[in-house]
Known about the structure:
This protein is mostly beta strands. The chain has one domain (44-201): Oxidoreductase, molybdopterin-binding domain (Sulfite Oxidase, Chain A, domain 2). It has helices at residues 60-64, 93-100, 123-126; strands at 8-11, 23-24, 45-50, 56-59, 69-72, 75-76, 81-83, 87-92, 108-113, 118-122, 132-137, 140-141, 151-153, 166-172. Strands 1, 5, 8, 11, 12 and 13 form a 6-stranded mixed beta sheet that branches. A 5-stranded mixed beta sheet has the order 4-3-14-9-10. Bound molecules: the ligand Nc1nc2c(c(=O)[nH]1)N[C@H]1C(S)=C(S)[C@@H](COP(=O)(O)O)O[C@H]1N2 and molybdenum atom. Residues 28-33, 77, 113, 115, 117, 146-147, 159-160, 162-165 line the site of the ligand Nc1nc2c(c(=O)[nH]1)N[C@H]1C(S)=C(S)[C@@H](COP(=O)(O)O)O[C@H]1N2.
Amino acid sequence: xxxxxxxxxxxxxxxxxxxxxxxxxxxxxxxxxxxxxxxxxxxxxxxxxxxxxxxxxxxxxxxxxxxxxxxxxxxxxxxxxxxxxxxxxxxxxxxxxxxxxxxxxxxxxxxxxxxxxxxxxxxxxxxxxxxxxxxxxxxxxxxxxxxxxxxxxxxxxxxxxxxxxxxxxxxxxxxxxxxxxxxxxxxxxxxxxxxxxxxxxx
Length: 202
Ligand SMILES: Nc1nc2c(c(=O)[nH]1)N[C@H]1C(S)=C(S)[C@@H](COP(=O)(O)O)O[C@H]1N2
Ligand SMILES: [Mo]
């Protein structure tokens, strides 16, 4: 049985406020650098590797057997649109960590995507209980242009950290900037602090 019923619903902290410099949209704009990635579910694999006790590589059926949670959270793009209501469903990062068991030295994570996009995050942020590997948005399987079949969703950071077409999660000791983080976007990307671009560019 693929994708059993959700186990739990998590809500982002009830901060109704819109972060500084953001404008509301009801739509869900698509923001991708380069082409969207179409991945055949039969070919799809997800690897979790690096500084973990238990490296894994899952096919879609195996991924579908993992516990499934629901997270409600706003989404904020650095280009200034915010979509306040989103329901995401998928595997909580904390549930992935329980399987792979990051080593003590693992402090950062690189999300690797089909199409070679990457982004970096502190492990601590991904362990916030809201970050997840999402396969559904607002009750529907994630559309290809929004990162389907599987994307990362990190509710506490600007949207570029929510990597679409996820194919790998790498656990590392030293931080390593990702695709946008080497091209002028802030390394941390906290929208409450308006961490949009490199400090020297702001
Ligand atoms: N693989 C990949 N993931 C990506 C991007 C991208 O270009 N490639 N763009 C990022 C940016 S800048 C944002 S704002 C969100 C947008 O997600 P959406 O297109 O579903 O709205 O995806 C992020 N994840
Ligand atoms: Mo973005």
